[in-house]
Protein 1
Amino acid sequence: MSVKLILVCKEGEARQAYLNETKALGVEVDVFPSFYEFLKTTANNPYQGLMIDLETQTKMSLEEKNVSKAIIEFFPAIQMKWHAESGSIRNISFGMKTTNVSLKEFIKTECQSFTARSVRLNIRKIVHFNVLLSKDESMHEKFLERTVTINVSRGGCFLSSGRDWSNYSTTWFIINELQDKSPIAGNIHWSVEWGKQMTIPGIGIDFRYIKQSQIEELVSHRSLSI
């Protein structure tokens, strides 16, 4: 298979097992012990998919987990777990939402048809701006949710929210700490509903409309060197 993938996995038996399987499939793989190492070295190289070791992922810091979410959105991705006792690998594809999908099936159905691309992400920094969040462009006081950002980059942010955003693709919000409090529009790329996962509920967005002056103020903010 003419496919190039990323593997994020710390050194050890699991990593070698994953590499043995990809080698048998004729897949080219670049290996990194963390997402930070990936971004520091070859993030500008084009790839067609992402493999993540479950144990490596569970031991990440909160900030690295936020970085990983952005990269998982960027590529076809599969989570892998090595069972040393049985000598087997269990896979979960983020796209297929199916357990025990084979690596070969993941590559064939999701990676081969995916146009290789590089990340070029702005790493999001953990910073908690106070935010007025709305599902409606009118920003009516009655429907505002008072919340905070969990992380922010030049291109977007993760906003904490206890509301259900599953049927929405756009949101509007005001960042209280900015001098210019014009509403900012964001495209919602993913959401986590309250009570569904053991993680912070909210929405991951890219800025759809934001003034250049607001971007400059975000970039220069003392809490956020982005």
Protein 2
Amino acid sequence: MRFCRRRGLGETEVTRREVLRAGFTGLGLFVVGPTLMGCGDGDGSDGSGSTRTSNIANLGPLGEPDENGVRLPAGFRSRIIGRSRQKPIPTVDFNWHLAPDGGATYPTDDGGWIYVSNSEVPIQGGVNAVRFDADGNLVDFYPILTGTSINCAGGPTPWGTWLTCEEFNQGHVWECDPYGVEPAVMRPTLGRFQHEAVCVDTDHQHLFLTEDVSDGRFYRFRPDRLIAGNPDLSSGTLEVAEVTGGGETGPVVWHALANPTPSLEETSTREQVPQSTPFRGGEGIWFREGIVYFATKGDHRIWAYDTHAETVDILYDDSNYESPILRGVDNIVATDSGDVLVAEDGDDMQIVAITPSGLIVPILQVVGHDGSEITGPAFNPAGDRLYFSSQRGTRNHFGDGYTFEVTGPFYL
């Protein structure tokens, strides 16, 4: 069974959501709550009509490690909300998962929110969800997908689901309900390959995907139809990118894949179009205001693909710095004010922001977790709490994952 229903919620709330989600299994479509942070119009709105201004460019230096081993700017604090093989909530008989990876948050009707987190282990992977009340207390913890393998990153959708990506050469994308009402659904239309992450282009209703191999490709999915303005993930065309013009950046041409779901004996997706462009280990990806940002770990770069001009450029390249602050680029999340936050895989275990003006600002650092990586950065809907994990903890072991919450003035 690849899905378990959540517990501890009122029947009225579940019934209303079940109505909202009618047709989820076939179409992958429903709408929930206020707009997710980073998935909106990019105008600084929190989904309620108000606007806010980023404070990230004003953060001071990181202080000494706190009691949780996290270095933070003044005015911020951390707590550990989960550790692998331990119960995050004493009343829920369910342990925090191994190797926590990609994650995202979703609003709830009572003013709280849900944080979903992948488990990047073979065969017994999947996705779990932790629910917070309006005061930030942990009130429930439950699985929303089980029995999958090496669930690495993924991406939230504007219609309120979580797309989790399996990172092996026959891996799929699964669409999950963070609220634990509807069963998770495999989305073969998004391809069978070593998936890393996915994002939704809300301007064109396309999806973009990265592939985590040394010669991975950059993919686009075009749905055959829209339902209620959102892409129907049950049918469409998967395409692969070719950067033309003879350089690393410039115009992009898209080629349809003849076989988006090859078996092991068939030609892989990245080899089906010989002229397609390899990228050195695709990692995190995020869409904001017409731009798809994605990371490649092999060359420590953050790319920016303009979905309107259909051109790609390099936003960040560590080779341009004598002593780069940001290396080991991995998961990405962009704020609604335009800051691009990048989690480091290794290096000095930081989350670093690239501001709209080009400043490189360390936001936090986890100390004593050598050999691990930072995963799953995601803000709560209000934007004052940031969630992330140290996948392998202090012992560099999949059974020693830590998941943190950092609270502070990310906005003025």
Protein 3
Amino acid sequence: MVPRQARRTGINKVLLEDLVLKILYLCGEITLLELSDITCLSQEVVDEIFQFLRKEQFCEVKGMAGISYRVTASAQGRQRAAHLLSLNEYAGAAPVSLADYTGRVRSQSAQEAMLHPAEVARAFHEMVLDEETLKRLGTSIASGTSLFLHGPSGTGKTTMASKIPNVYGDYVWIPHAVEVDNQIIKVFDPGVHHQINEPIPEDSDRRWVLCRRPCVLAGGELSAEMLDLQMSEVTHIYTAPLQMKANNGVLIIDDFGRQKMRPDELLNRWMTPLDRRVDFLTLQGAKKFEIPFNVFVAFSTNLDPAHLADEAFLRRIPNKIRVEYATPEQFIEIFRRECQARALNYDPALAEFVVQCISQAWKRPLAQCYAKDLINQIVWEACYSGAEASVTHETINQACQAYFLRAAS
């Protein structure tokens, strides 16, 4: 429900007044209606703040635009706004309180979602998986906890993990920002939070954005700093860590064991969150606070999990699935789908030839990724030659020679 009074926003009114003053300073001249759109506050709250700033001579009316005042910061207001911007440059949507954020995240928990086999099959329909793997995936996702995908390279573990959010057919509310101890933390990130285009109820609090359940992927670039609050040295604005952005969704740790931070460092950092489902963050000045850790964490690695983590940590990841190479039948189906997706000719005999070429001539296992990678080679060569791409014995052999370094011994 949209707050109609400043005191009902859950945010200190002074913080809202400072936010509005900074926006007035940066925009120059703006209507109260536009100010409402920028702050995502109701017109009633914006008018309440405007009346205060006007009374204190921090802003002044420049005219009318329809039925809305056009206002600007006064000289006194600009002076104060410049000082506020030197402290932090945040001038966007008003934040929500930590208490409201915590309550909303817990009410939207993925653990409360009811999943059925048909929904899991739909989410992974683009992949060629056997029934047992689908069943184990569904069971893992239904737990709402965490999953360890391990197995050889090229078997589709990362793709599998990225499909997990497709299982959920619902949406969640993500805040633009959260206020903690008068500090603003930016949470909404268009890179990971995909806003829906459907109309939302008119009485919705616009400080929240209705999105698909988020999916955050972190690979070899993952560092310890990315799991804590990050403050820009220039803007002095806090940005939420990865796990906070992923709340109510999925966090994928890809190529686990190859990150900038050591595996034991990551595991120690998340021992408590995975166990108690809460995390602790620290503001500058050593102010600590608790946030929900309502994340489905999917670890993906081609290394031996036993060499990456001790038994105490592996117990906290209750679901483990080993992903094997494709069978000849599975590989042929993957190859058929790739040909269909590229509008290429498909011949079952040629698909069997691909399997024979990979496994016998090049002595390689049937990694699921090979189907797409070899089709890419065929398409690229045709594009360069100015010819129409076609799957033949000759183009398959050429693709293998371009793709594989040498036959395995």
